[in-house]
Amino acid sequence: MTTITTVTPRRSAVPRLRRTRGFSAERPRRSPLLTVLTGIVLVYSLLPLAWLLVNATKTQADLFSSFGLWFGDSFALFSNIGQTLTYDDGIFVRWFANTLLYVVLGAGGATALAVLGGYGLAKFDFPGKKGVFATVIGAVAVPGTALAVPTFLMFSQMGLTNTPWSVIIPSLISPFGLYLMWTFAAEAIPTELLEAARMDGANEARTFAQICLPLLAPGIVTVLLFTMVATWNNYFLPLIMLKDPDWYPLTLGLNAWNAQAATAGGEAIFNLVITGAVLTIVPLVIAFLFLQRYWQSGLAAGSVKE
Amino acid sequence: MVTSTSRRHEGVPVTQTAVPPAAAVSAGPTPRPARRRSWSGWGFVGPFMAVFTLVFLAPIAYSIYLSVFRTQLIGGTTFVGLENYARAFGDAQLWAALGRVSLFLLVQVPVMLGIALLVALALDSGRLFGRDFFRISIFLPYAVPAVVATLMWGFMYGTRFGLVGNINDALGVALPNPLAPDLVLAAIGNIVTWEFVGYNMLIFYSALRTIPTSLYEAAQIDGAGQWRVIRAIKLPAIRGALVIATIFSIIGSFQLFNEPSILQALAPNAITTYFTPNLYAYSLSFSGQQYNYSATVAIIMGLLTMVIAYVVQLRGMRKEA
């Protein structure tokens, strides 16, 4: 089996990422059956989102009385959005801004560190390199709580808990981002190019900034999107670090709104929870759709190969 | 870090750094090949490792330190050696939690990765109508925060006003309540599957795309059919991706926290404070103030996860030989 994968030399006419899809040289025939079967997974993936969208248009009363997958008597989407944004002195807007702050600093920083580190691992041989790899991979397996409790205690001694820093600093490390960037840099930057740059007397920082960064762009977009999702969706870390709702990100805020119904004397605001959930998802979906050309090529070129 | 004048980092004077022997040899006017061993790689990896040390290694070390002490209201903190570990060994709640995530792992991970692989192969076959639409749509749930996904499914599971309730009313049946104690684990499995099928599909699909077309041409000349191509070329070529996805899924299962923790508000009777090991460790420290024992539980889980991930990796890679 392995002989097949190793002996065949790549023909020069064939681009690295196949343009023509499928197994034969001519276009494979489309299969309605296969499309229908895959369509089941598609429905599974989209149905809950459709449910969410439909129910964001309902008043709380309709939520209880009408069928879940169809619209209620009233179309309350805009009043729901208005209420979501103004409820409790507009705390939702504050949460939105907090989330943006955490994403810009956390995901931005994580991407920068992963790009530098991945490039270093891919293109340099340095003492301790194997140790770096083993440590990072090993540490990924440590459960969140193993880190959460001591990190919380450490940060609380440093006076960082209940501040944005307690959420941002731990977000700066993305082992998956490092891994992705490493495989990507190994592929995308020809070693000869580095040698040529050094031959011309460029120092490492300049070689990296002017020659390698542009080549790494698709990989950077990919890592940025994945770290963005991770920080935008982060729940556990802020849950333990933050007490003050003024510093909550959207995820924690939505959960607080949902839990409010269960507390004594708390007002049930399920319509706002659902509308808030839609507003939380929309920015990420837009980012993915707009940048898909970049991140998908980055993922493909940087994907795991043996 | 700085090894020669030609590779100086901005703002760092050369003389200031201690030059290690290996690097000193390579320093000189003539540049050597890029793969020579030198310290300059640390200039790039260093920032990552510095923050990594602060937010990963230091807390792990602190955890280990915590796990060998006991803190009591009266008597303060005393060194107890491995006593916390002995307690964990006989802790029925921890074993119950561990059994639950193991069951989850054995059922949910194969289902999720199986679906993801089938969809990735279907997309890669080029035989679907509207391939790009499929790929993007199935991936979309990954962008949904676990909080939103859990709230959404939690509402839908509801027998009173959720979809399950709607179906019961419409058809006059009484479907079992997904949030009942005996079904809630499956209900969580469904949420996690929904969240990550698309993500794993994309990892597999990206790996499939890197297979050179020439292999397919060779297979065609040999008269191989679709299934043979999948078995002989596609699956072996993406084994690395399969192993990595399996390892990440195992780690994810053992760390299960968000979904059960959020569902707790909707199903307080079905989800205990020790439902998963992670939830148990969380409850121990944040509602029980038992930081030392909590750290012990977390370390045991970390070690266990590492061992299993390592075994999976060994097995996955051995098949290649």
From TrEMBL, chain A:
Keywords: Cell membrane, Membrane, Sugar transport, Transmembrane, Transmembrane helix, Transport. It holds the Pfam family BPD_transp_1. It comes from the Bacteria. The chain crosses the membrane at residues 33-54, 61-79, 99-121, 133-155, 167-186, 207-232, 268-291. It is a multi-pass membrane protein. GO terms for cellular component: plasma membrane. GO terms for biological process: transmembrane transport. The keyword Mitochondrion does not apply. Belongs to the binding-protein-dependent transport system permease family. This is ABC transporter permease. The lineage of its organism: Bacteria, Bacillati, Actinomycetota, Actinomycetes, Micrococcales.
